[in-house]
Amino acid sequence: PNIVTPGGTSMKGDYDRHGFIYIAPAGELHAGSRISMAMQSEDIISMFITGKGPGKEPGSNQTIIEEWQRCHLTM
To answer: What domain count does the chain have?
Structure first.
């Protein structure tokens, strides 16, 4: 399947029922890092950024973890 990255790149990644994995492309935040998203519930996705990128020591393989929560619109 395809994904459009935060930097606007359309690319392929690996998908399973509850997750998606891709390598951040050159020129984007975290370029070269492995981006892994895992669905925790209907409303929560955990994102793991492993490898290179801003704020990491050279040669580091640290993982940054972000939690995304669905926005609920009320009208």
So the answer is: 1
